[in-house]
UniProtKB/TrEMBL annotation:
Stretches for region Disordered: 1-64
Biased composition (Basic and acidic residues): 1-15
GO molecular function: chromatin binding
Classification via InterPro entries: NKAP (IPR040466), NKAP_C (IPR009269)
Alphabetical list of PANTHER family matching this protein: NF-KAPPA B ACTIVATING PROTEIN, NFKB ACTIVATING PROTEIN LIKE
A single GO BP: regulation of gene expression
Similarity remark: Belongs to the NKAP family.
Domain NF-kappa-B-activating protein C-terminal, chain residue ranges per copy: 107-206
Ranges of biased composition (kind: Basic residues): 29-51
Gene Ontology terms: cellular component: nucleus
Full protein name: UPF0396 protein CG6066 (inferred by orthology to a D. melanogaster protein)
Pfam families recorded: Nkap_C
Length: 212
């Protein structure tokens, strides 16, 4: 009887161990499945990120194909065909603009001139007004000329040395302004002549095209 009871107890222990092992195996299987699912999700996220980065890089970098180059070349040819004759280089246009600016802005008024004195005199000359002299404060140029016509002598014209320096400075400014105006006039005239010659060439080329 005791042996039978021992056998039964051993069998029950074996069954309990078997059940416990099966449960543990099931738990491990579940854990493995969950890990696999997580790893798959992580891989999918990585793929999505790589795709998005690839798309952004494709948007930033565009390869220049032969068709694009041919289209650009065709556009340039059309622009050149619309122009009659060779185009003026850009560096020559820039030089011309710089020369015109120098003629208009920077004028050499000569020596022995105070800062801003020559520019102020030139402003009065450009307006066609009389240049005010030393001691002529509180009166306009028109009023001074009227007083001088009547017979008044202004304080600036009494001293011979002051009068000489004033006349010298005025003459310097006048000559510089005359030179500037003449240079601008010659520049404009040269441009007009060039435009006339260009128009003549254009009309000649167009007449040849129509004949052909």
């Amino acid at each position: 009887m005791e042996e039978e009871q021992l056998k039964k107890a051993q069998q029950e222990e074996k069954q309990a161990r078997h059940k416990h092992g099966a449960k543990a195996d099931k738990k491990e299987g579940k854990r493995k499945k969950e890990k696999e699912k997580k790893s798959k999700k992580h891989k999918k996220k990585k793929k999505k990120k790589s795709k998005s980065s690839g798309e952004s890089s494709e948007a930033e970098w565009v390869e220049v194909t032969k068709e694009m180059r041919e289209a650009e070349a065709a556009k340039e040819k059309l622009e050149e065909a619309s122009m009659v004759g060779p185009a003026i280089p850009e560096y020559l246009l820039q030089k011309e603009a710089a020369l015109t600016d120098d003629h208009t802005k920077h004028v050499n008024y000569g020596k022995d001139m105070l800062r801003g004195e020559a520019a102020a005199m030139a402003a009065y000359i450009a307006q066609g007004k009389r240049i005010p002299r030393r001691g002529e404060i509180g009166l306009s140029s028109t009023e001074i000329t009227e007083f001088e016509k009547i017979g008044y002598v202004m304080s600036g014209t009494r001293h011979k040395s002051m009068e000489a320096t004033r006349l010298r400075k005025e003459n310097q400014v006048m000559t510089a302004e005359e030179k500037r105006l003449l240079s601008g006039f010659t520049h404009d005239e040269r441009k007009k002549k060039e435009e006339i010659v260009l128009q003549q060439f254009k009309s000649f080329i167009e007449s040849k095209k129509t004949k052909n």
